[in-house]
Amino acid sequence: MSGNSEQDLRIQLAACYRIFDYLGWSELIYNHITVRLPGDQQHFLINPYGLHYSEVTASNLIKVDIDGHIIDNTPHKVNPAGMLIHSAIHAAREDAHCISHLHTDAGMAVACQQQGLRHDNFYSVLLHSQVGYHDFEGLTVTPDEKVRLVANLGDKNQMILRNHGLLSCGSTLPEMFLNTWALQRSCEIQVAADSCGKPLQAIGDEIAAKSAALLNVQTAGAAAGELEFAAMVRKIDAIDPSYKH
């Protein structure tokens, strides 16, 4: 699944929707994952509004332009809030080829906390200084919010939408998947640790500051998310490979 043609990306993105569902990250028919298509037209793929993540396939993913116009011949519509968030970031960040947005319990719980994500667990410390924050402005359907959304993300690949949920980007779909997983896992551990009601062990700033360099050693030269995403695709293929159609 390493190709970059439209069909390759359709299959890869459809697999990603099935992986998110397998991991419990779906939210009825809501939320969205997008991938930019090759070429200069700024087209990207998004899920059909009204389908559950488990129903997404390569062929029913919808191609849209950067202004939200549907390019495909499809009976489906697209989520207005999803189009605003994803079109804003795809237009502003050429490196953000893939974007995910989640409403998980743990992600929303941390998004509701004033302090946000602390760097005091194994995964969150790896995200030290890599997470932006965007204040809640209500349902994300107002065009003028795009400017603030993009400004608050800046050059980061992770953002917590306060009172709302999580957003992750990547230069490839596997990288976006790994970024999403790391942010979600960080939130899960923070919520679990807080639920214990016991004093927490802090991680010093000097350790946090060198975490990115330590992570480079761990990845051993593999492209970001490549091994992890491939493992999850094999898991989904063993369960139900119908996403490829």
From TrEMBL:
Entry's Gene Ontology cellular component terms: cytoskeleton
Entry GO MF terms: actin filament binding
Gene Ontology biological process terms in this record: monosaccharide metabolic process
Signal peptide limits: none
Protein's name in the database: Class II aldolase
InterPro entries recorded: Aldolase-II_Adducin_sf (IPR051017), Aldolase_II/adducin_N (IPR001303), Aldolase_II/adducin_N_sf (IPR036409)
Organism encoding this protein: Oceanicoccus sagamiensis
Pfam families: Aldolase_II
